[in-house]
């Protein structure tokens, strides 16, 4: 196994992502223009972790840190060893809000592993590893490719197609203070759903691909879901109610990922009335995000 020289370093940036977008459960992912960076350095020995921003009060400072775990797993797979590792995380994506913080961390770790090992970037390799760690491919695929993606496959056999994004597409997110763990939100989903709901979601998912690519006027119809959001309402009643009110007012609102953030899609013009519709709520407007990359 090749050993890396102490002092080898890389900085990686990865975007926040919004998954599902209504009917695309575990398939659709949208990268947002909201990034965080992490610096990795090969040390002569030991582990050093320094974190600022989101999660800095709770994240582990040892080798169990999610980014470090992915760097180590990636290096291992590449037949490379780091005698020690230092990490400096500049975290901006809030955790457990449905904005893909864990996927950003995981993807950053695998991208960093290849850069530290001095091998060329490989999106398929990162997707395979990141999907295995995350357990669902939508956020990691969007973080790897940027823009709008459709991830598909079964288990480890995962692939992704990048969809076209209309140049005027924007997102607005309302991010609650409270976190909901993705794992907990997944446990709320039923094992069986009515055939009519599955069929309706499939139709809306197809429509959403067209709406995102060509026709933002169809975003409201295209973000309608019957398969998962309603089952998660008990874990995020306020977010669910906000989404329902926004939809009733004509906005293309959905629960972002496993929630509780509410994401609204539209052109800049479509999003103008958000604050007037929900005076107590702060919306952050975002463009579409770039792929994760070593800087
Ligand atoms: N930058 C990071 N560094 C280390 N761990 C992280 C980072 N971002 C997220 N995590 C881990 O992922 C968890 C959040 O994952 P999850 O429940 O899937 O929510 P999210 O929707 O934010 O991805 C955090 O509690 C933390 O354990
Ligand atoms: N398809 C997943 C997406 C989870 O996204 P996250 O940003 O909440 O981790 C799900 O809905 O469980």
From TrEMBL:
Ordered alphabetically, the record's keywords are:
Amino-acid biosynthesis, ATP-binding, Cytoplasm, Kinase, Nucleotide-binding, Threonine biosynthesis, Transferase
Q: Which residues bind ATP?
A: 94-104
- Protein biosynthesis: is it a keyword of this entry? no
Instruction: Just give the chief location class.
Output: cytoplasm
Keyword Secreted attached: no
Top enzyme class, one word, equals transferase
Q: What is its EC number?
A: 2.7.1.39
GO MF entries: kinase activity
> Function, please?
Catalyzes the ATP-dependent phosphorylation of L-homoserine to L-homoserine phosphate.
| Name of this protein | Homoserine kinase
Whichever gene encodes this chain, its name is thrB
